[in-house]
DNA sequence: GTAGGGTTAG
C-alpha cells in the first residue's frame, strides 16, 4: 500500500466491491485480509481475537444461540429439511442473499394531523411543565384540562411534558379516563420520557403491562427499552429484550439493530458485534453513519487501530459519507489508538469535505495534541478556531487548559482563562480552576495560585479535591506551611473530601519539610484525612519497633490505599525516613514495596547489562535503591560471581517542563558515594558504569560506604 | 425532547 498519502485518507480497498454478491458472505475474510495487507508493523488484533481460545465461551455462536437456533434460522422449513436429508449437497447460490437478520425498512412514524385546539393545549402543557406539584395537586390541575383528553389531545400534551414524573403521572391519568383504548404510541412516548430519567424499572413495568394487555410492542418500543437499559448500564436487560423481540417474531429494523450493536460494543464483545454486523451486511443491509459510529467507538475503546481502518474502509467501499459525529468518534478512536498524525490528517480530510467541526471535534483533537505533546499544532488549532469562529464550549476550554497544564503553557492558559471569563457560554467552573491551580502550582507561582483560590467563592465556584491537591502541593513546594494548613482546613470545611491523592500530596510535603514544626503541622492535616497513615509514620520513627511489626502495619496501610496511590505513598515514606536519618527503615520500606509489587521492573538483567530503572521512584527511594544495588554488587564481587560488562541506571529526563530532575539528585548521590557511574551522552537520563570500574570501587570500600 | 439508534474533560 502506498505510503505517500496519509493512511487515514488513502484507504483503497484491497478487495472488490463488497456489495458484489460474490463477496457478500466473506466480510470476516475481507477484514482479516485487510488487516494482514495493511498493517505489517502492528499485530492483527482484530483477527487475533477469534483465535484466542480463552474467548471461546463468549463467542458469538454462544451469544447468538438463542437467536440462531430458535428464531434467526429458517425454523423447520422445507429448506432446512432438505438440507438435513441431503447433507452432502453443500453448494449454495452465492447470488442469493442470506436470510435477513433485520428488516430493511425502517418502521414508519405516524403522521400527526393538525389539532385545532393546539394553542390552548400547549398553554396548558406549559402550565403543567412550569409548576411544582405534589402528585395530588398535579392530578387536580389535570382536571382543568381545557379540552377533553381525546387521543390527539392527550398525545399532544404527553409529548409536551418535560419531566418523566409528570409524563408518567399524565399517562396513568389518561388511562383512568377511559376515553379511548391505549395504543403503542402512548407507551412509546411515555417510555422515552422515562428514559430521560433513566427509569428502567418503570419502563420494564410498562412493557410488561403492554404484553399483559396485548398492546403491540414495535421497533420503537424495543429500541427505547434497549437504549434505556444501556444508559442504566443494565446490559443483560438490553440483550434480554432484544432476544425477546426476535422470539415474538418481530424483526429489528436498523435503528433497533444498531442499538443492540452498541450494547454488545459497550460490553466489549467485539467479535459478536462484528458477527452481527457481517450477518446484517450479508443480508443486504447498507449500514448508515450511526452504525459506523458504533463500530468506530468500539474499536477506539479497544485502542484497535486495525479496527478503525476497517471502519474507514467499509464506509469508503459502501460509499457512506461520514458525518460530523462519525468523524468525531473516529478522531477520538485515533487518539486512543495512539495515532495523532493520522488524527490530524483525518481532521483535514473532514474540513476539506466541507464539514464544519464542532466543539466535540475540537476537544478530541486538543486532547490528542496535548497527549502527543504537540503544542504547536494545538496552538495553531486554537488560532484557527478563533479565526473561523468554530464553536466552543466550557469542555473544550477546559481541555485546552488541561493541555496547557500538561505542556507548561502558562501565558496561553491565562489568556484562555480570561477568554472564558469574558464568554457567555463557557464560564470557568471547578475544572477550569483546577487546571489553573495545576498550572501555577507546577510553575511554582504560589501567589497566583492563592489568588485563584481566594477568588473562587466570588464566582460561586467550589474547590474540588483535585484543585485542593494542586494548591497544597504548590504551597508545600513554596514552604508556605501555614498557608497550606489554612487552605487544607478551609477546603475540608467547604466540603472537600480528601482522597488518597491528596493524602499522598500531604505526605510528600511532609517528606520535604526541613523544620520539625512544619513537619508536625503537615502531619496534623494528614491526621484529619488518614490517621492510620500518620500512626504508621510515627511507628516508623520509633526505633524500638522491629521489622515484623513494620511489615504487618505496612501491609494494612497499603492494602487500604487505592492501587494508584500505593507507590507514591511508599516513595514518600522512604523519603521521610531518609530525612529523619532512619536509613535502615528506608531500606526496609523499599524491600517491602518491592515484595508487594509496587516497583515492578526496578531491576533488569541481560547477559551483557544489568540495569536499575528508578524512573518511578522518588529521590530518596532512588538513592535507597542505588545503595541497595551497590550492597548486592559488593556481595557478588566478594563471592567472585559472574558479572556483565555494563551497569546502567535509568532516571529518565522528565518530559514535563516543570519536572524536577531526578537525574540531578541521582548524580549528586552517585558522586557522594564516589561510585563510578557517568551520565551517558548517547542515552539521555542514563547513568553507566563499566564492570572493571565498579569492581575496583567496591573493593576500595573498606569499610563499605554503604553499610550492609 | 414533538414516538426509537451513535460523539466531548484529570
From TrEMBL:
Residues 38-115 are annotated as: Disordered. Residues 102-114 have a biased composition (Polar residues). PPR repeats lie at residues 218-252, 253-287, 288-322, 323-357, 358-392, 393-423, 429-463, 464-498. It comes from the Eukaryota. Residues 612-695 form the Smr domain. Residues 66-75 have a biased composition (Low complexity). Residues 46-55 have a biased composition (Basic and acidic residues). The keyword Repeat applies. GO terms for biological process: positive regulation of translation. InterPro entries: PPR_rpt (IPR002885), Smr_dom (IPR002625), TPR-like_helical_dom_sf (IPR011990). Gene3D superfamilies: Tetratricopeptide repeat domain. It holds the Pfam family PPR_3. PROSITE patterns: PPR (PS51375), SMR (PS50828). Keywords: Repeat. GO terms for molecular function: mRNA binding; rRNA primary transcript binding. GO terms for cellular component: chloroplast stroma. NCBIfam families: PPR (TIGR00756). Belongs to the PPR family. P subfamily. This is Smr domain-containing protein. It comes from Trapa incisa. The lineage of its organism: Eukaryota, Viridiplantae, Streptophyta, Embryophyta, Tracheophyta.
Amino acid at each position: 500500500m502506498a505510503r505517500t498519502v496519509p493512511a487515514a485518507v488513502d484507504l483503497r480497498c484491497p478487495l472488490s466491491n463488497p456489495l458484489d454478491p460474490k463477496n457478500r458472505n466473506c466480510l470476516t475474510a475481507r477484514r482479516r485480509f485487510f488487516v494482514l495487507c495493511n498493517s505489517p508493523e502492528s499485530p492483527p488484533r482484530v483477527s487475533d481475537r477469534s483465535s484466542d481460545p480463552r474467548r471461546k465461551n463468549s463467542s458469538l455462536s454462544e451469544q447468538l444461540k438463542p437467536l440462531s437456533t430458535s428464531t434467526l434460522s429458517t425454523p423447520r422449513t422445507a429448506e432446512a429439511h432438505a438440507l438435513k436429508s441431503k447433507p452432502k449437497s453443500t453448494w449454495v447460490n452465492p447470488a442469493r442473499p442470506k436470510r435477513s437478520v433485520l428488516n430493511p425498512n425502517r418502521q414508519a412514524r405516524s403522521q400527526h394531523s393538525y389539532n385545532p385546539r393546539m394553542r390552548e393545549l400547549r398553554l396548558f402543557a406549559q402550565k403543567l411543565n412550569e409548576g411544582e406539584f405534589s402528585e395530588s395537586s398535579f392530578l387536580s390541575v389535570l382536571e382543568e384540562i381545557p379540552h377533553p383528553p381525546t387521543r390527539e389531545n392527550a398525545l399532544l400534551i404527553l409529548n409536551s411534558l418535560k419531566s418523566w414524573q409528570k409524563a408518567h403521572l399524565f399517562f396513568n391519568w389518561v388511562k383512568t379516563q377511559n376515553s379511548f383504548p391505549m395504543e403503542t404510541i402512548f407507551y412509546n412516548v411515555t417510555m422515552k420520557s422515562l428514559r430521560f430519567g433513566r427509569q428502567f424499572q418503570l419502563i420494564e413495568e410498562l412493557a410488561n403491562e403492554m404484553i399483559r394487555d396485548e398492546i403491540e410492542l414495535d421497533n420503537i418500543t424495543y429500541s427505547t427499552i434497549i437504549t434505556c437499559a444501556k444508559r442504566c448500564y443494565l446490559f443483560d436487560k438490553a440483550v434480554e429484550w432484544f432476544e425477546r423481540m426476535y422470539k415474538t417474531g418481530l424483526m429489528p429494523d436498523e435503528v433497533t439493530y444498531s442499538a443492540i450493536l452498541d450494547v454488545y460494543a459497550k460490553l466489549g464483545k467485539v467479535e459478536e458485534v462484528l458477527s452481527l454486523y457481517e450477518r446484517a451486511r450479508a443480508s443486504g443491509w447498507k449500514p448508515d453513519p450511526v452504525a459506523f459510529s458504533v463500530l468506530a467507538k468500539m474499536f477506539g475503546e479497544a485502542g484497535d487501530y486495525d479496527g478503525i481502518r476497517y471502519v474507514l474502509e467499509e464506509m469508503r467501499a459502501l460509499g457512506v459519507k461520514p458525518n460530523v459525529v462519525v468523524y468525531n468518534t473516529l478522531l477520538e478512536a485515533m487518539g486512543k489508538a495512539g495515532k495523532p498524525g493520522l488524527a490530524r490528517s483525518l481532521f483535514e480530510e473532514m474540513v476539506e469535505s466541507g464539514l464544519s467541526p464542532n466543539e466535540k471535534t475540537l476537544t478530541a483533537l486538543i486532547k490528542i495534541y496535548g497527549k502527543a505533546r504537540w503544542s504547536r499544532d494545538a496552538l495553531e488549532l486554537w488560532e484557527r478556531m478563533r479565526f473561523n469562529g468554530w464553536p466552543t464550549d466550557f469542555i473544550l476550554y477546559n481541555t485546552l487548559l488541561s493541555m496547557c497544564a500538561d505542556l507548561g503553557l502558562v501565558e496561553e492558559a491565562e489568556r484562555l482563562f480570561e477568554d472564558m471569563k469574558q464568554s457567555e457560554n463557557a464560564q470557568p467552573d471547578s475544572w477550569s480552576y483546577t487546571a489553573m491551580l495545576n498550572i501555577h502550582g507546577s510553575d511554582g507561582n504560589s501567589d497566583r495560585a492563592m489568588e485563584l483560590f481566594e477568588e473562587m467563592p466570588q464566582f460561586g465556584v467550589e474547590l474540588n479535591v483535585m484543585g485542593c491537591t494542586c494548591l497544597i502541593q504548590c504551597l508545600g513546594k513554596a514552604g508556605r506551611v501555614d498557608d497550606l494548613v489554612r487552605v487544607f482546613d478551609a477546603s475540608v470545611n467547604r466540603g472537600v473530601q480528601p482522597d488518597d491523592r491528596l493524602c499522598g500530596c500531604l505526605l510528600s510535603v511532609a517528606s520535604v519539610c526541613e523544620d520539625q514544626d512544619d513537619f508536625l503541622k503537615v502531619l496534623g492535616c494528614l491526621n484529619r484525612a488518614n490517621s492510620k497513615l500518620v500512626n504508621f509514620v510515627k511507628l516508623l520513627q520509633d526505633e524500638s519497633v522491629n521489622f515484623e511489626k513494620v511489615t504487618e502495619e505496612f501491609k494494612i496501610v497499603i492494602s487500604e490505599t487505592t492501587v494508584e496511590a500505593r507507590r507514591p505513598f511508599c516513595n514518600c515514606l522512604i523519603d521521610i525516613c531518609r530525612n529523619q536519618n532512619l536509613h535502615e527503615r528506608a531500606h526496609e520500606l523499599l524491600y517491602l514495596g518491592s515484595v508487594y509489587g509496587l516497583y515492578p521492573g526496578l531491576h533488569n538483567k541481560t547477559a551483557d547489562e544489568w540495569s536499575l530503572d528508578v524512573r518511578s521512584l522518588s529521590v530518596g527511594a532512588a538513592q535507597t535503591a542505588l545503595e541497595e544495588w551497590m550492597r548486592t554488587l559488593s556481595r557478588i564481587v566478594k563471592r567472585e560471581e559472574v558479572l556483565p560488562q555494563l551497569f546502567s541506571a535509568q532516571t529518565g529526563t522528565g518530559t514535563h517542563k516543570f519536572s524536577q530532575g531526578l537525574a540531578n539528585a541521582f548524580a549528586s548521590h552517585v558522586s557522594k558515594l564516589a561510585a563510578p557511574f557517568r551520565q551517558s551522552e548517547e542515552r539521555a537520563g542514563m547513568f553507566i558504569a563499566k564492570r572493571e570500574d565498579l569492581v575496583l570501587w567496591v573493593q576500595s570500600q573498606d569499610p563499605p560506604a554503604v553499610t550492609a
